[in-house]
Amino acid sequence: MQLIQMLASSLMLAGTICAEASARGLTPRDEKIAPKVFIVSMFEPEAQAWWNIHDFNLLAHNVTVPGLSSLYPNVHCTKDYEVCQLITGEGEINAATTVASVAFSSIFDLTKTYFFVAGIAGVNPKRTTTGSATFARYAVQVALQYEIDIRELPKNYSTGYIPLGADAANKYPTLIYGTEVFEVNEELRDIAVDFARQAKLADSDTAKEYRKHFETSGGEYKAATGAPGITKCDVATSDVYYSGQLLAGAFENTTKVLTNGTGDYCSSAQEDNATLEVLLRSSAHKLTDFSRIIIMRTASDFDRQYPGASASYNLFHASDQGGFEIALKNIYQAGIQVVQGILDGWDRQFEAGVKARNYVGDIFGTLGGQPDFGPGRNAALEGSGAFKKRSFHMKRHA
User: Fold this and answer.
1) Cα separation of 289 and 225, whole Å?
2) Which residues contact 94 (CB under 8 A, 6 or more apart)?
3) N or C: which end of the chain has fewer CB atoms below 10 A?
């Protein structure tokens, strides 16, 4: 009898603790954390843009997740766990490792979570200017190519970057890795853009003055001379931090080639394709939903020099551009509008998801559907060697 009473008392106590935890917005240890929005930051300055905000305390909970970077070992969450944040560490390897550790963790239920990549980037002055927030449909891994030092190029080549398996820069690669291009939900992107356009973006006198260098008679860089705004355009991923007309122009072309002419290159980053490949794989296992991804990059510096300047000046004196500080501020200024929009519209729209009208996924059609970029699913798989491996047949290349 005493044993039964002790068990009953224990169960009542446990129930009381769980009820109190629920009332305080906490999650008991045996309940998975199911954030509505997961902010993906790449390094501490981007992450800090969201910290110490009144009524939006991302540091209310710090959740240690095995596999995260030793520099950023915790996922941060608000008190009610509706919004969480991870910090990948910079570069593709760090991004892939960190996001995989979260996406495949048993700590979280991410089946309805919106992943919001929110970082800074270099920017194409033909498309927009420093301080702007860009929202992508395509992420293109532009440096996944052959490379010949430009000093050893044949005279009829304009760039040292050549798609894998091809012999010219304007040809589609025939050796396919699968991470070259990702396409996210355009309908969701457009909704996020509408939210972000409610923001008042930060600017600075230094940035305004520097933009005047892009004023030309032909108006090629007119977009660079204006105030920060919200722009729909696409992101390039490269671990190489590049600068200059030649490289930026080459990767602008790569974006067009790999997206069959649809992509519109404007921002340069180091992590996005790695992040997206992980979320694609986790979505294939029904752990995440690839149609719930938003990619926002705010412009911290120009990817190429203004007329009359050098590529090295553009790279080594980027601080003269005045874009870094305002880009960090605008991660939050634009980003909070997106986050709040999702939270406010959760019951009405976002819990059920935003139906994509475009193709969503990778070049292989991993999640179903036919990619609207690349050589087609079967040709891409052929180029990857997948068919050859299945048939144990080695094809000779000329």
Assistant:
1) 38
2) 69, 88, 271
3) C
